[in-house]
Amino acid sequence: MAAVDELFLGVDLGTGGVRMVAVNQQGEVAAVGRASLPAEAGQPTRHEQQPEVWWNGLAAATARLRVELSAVGRTASSIRALAVDGTSGTVACLDREGRPLRPALMYNDGRAEAEAATLNETAGSFCDEVGYRFASSFALAKILWIREREPAVFSRTRYFAHQADFINWRLTGVPGVSDYSNALKTGYDLVDECWPAWLGSYAGVEQRLPEIVPPATALGEVSREAARATGLAAGTVVVSGATDGTAGALAAGLKRPGDYNTTLGTTLIFKTLSDRLVKSRDGLVYSHKLPGGRWLPGAASNTGGRWIAEWFPGADPAVLDAAAADLLPSDDITYPLIGTGERFPFRVESARGFGPAAGSDGERFAAGLQGTALLERHGYATLDAVAGSAAGQVYTTGGGSRSDIWVQCRADAAGRVYHRPCHPEAAFGAAILAAAGTAFADLQGAVDAMVRIERSFVPNPAAADGYDALYHRFVRALASRGYA
Fold first, then answer.
1. Over 60: is that where the pLDDT of 3 sits?
2. Which distant-in-sequence residues (6+ apart) come within 8 Å of 257 by Cβ?
3. Which of 156, 163, 174, 188 has the most crowded CB, counting CB atoms within 10 A?
């Protein structure tokens, strides 16, 4: 076991910022660091971001982390290992030196719809085996989009990389390695743990894909050059990470098959712990794999907390929370999707949000909180049907889980007990992976030792009938638009 005073750093690369947390092996937080990222370039189906902003954001967040470490008498040298998580399905084109050749196609870029359809024809038997179908949000569909529409970029690309892969290469100098959590949406076969043979149908693709290792695998060490650029200590062990949804599920503290996790950030990510691979005929649900043989069936919705910044720019969410507290449940039926296209609990590329009705800031905010909660209930009903589960309890993570008002609304709307861990963020889950790869015998041991529940939210029985009626109205409103 590692010395008690050693720290483990988790780095979460989101759409709007970099968040990091340094913790010991008892799960006690020593310091945090944050940095905002420039807004992605976006249109209804086009979402891109320069990979260099991820690297610059890492350095900025590390600078803030070091200030907090100094305040408690620690330095970056106290960090034994780090791991990085990132958005699922985001893909960057890197040359032989690891330099980006174009902006990365983000997780919610929807231009590869035709390529996804082609993949589902080519890889039909594979899709049956692994239990999902390709969508435009998948990295492999985006890679084929680049291959067909930007052949000059494709030919110069040495590796297609996820967010974490890009950062890990920069940190260690070790090119072309990814983990099988991030690689799921690039078509990696999680059953046989290899790139599937049918990728040969697409000339040049497999040669540009990385080597795959399990999450929590030591990849190398922070180089002297990377240490100078970031402020991290040279020699810090870099461990393979996972997608942000997988990291969020680890931060939640899932222990038993049937436990659920929702990570509520910019988007809404659903996971459940299972001893088996769960298959979905319609492709809405896919299963991540954890070291040790367990699985995380789940899915991701484009709906989440993004509406708060869009509807209330610059506002203090705590003030809005207080204004909305006495207005829940709300009679307003709102679907707070920002942008175009939904992935789960239904897949409609043209889906658009609706509501809220005109009203005060408190009324509109309450409608958004409730609308997200009702969509989450719809997602769990869908996941229950696929996984064969029944109304399991939820461990909630992500920035949206900090709000007591929102978590209670979600518990009331879903009729499920919600548990909030002490540190409900994907960055904490990445720190667990860093510790699991260096200080613990296995991943579950790290989860058990590092995660503690801060508060549980029990549904209010008096609100049950009202939320049931609102939920059915919500589903009918979606169905009337062809969304459900």
1. no
2. 273, 274, 275, 294
3. 163
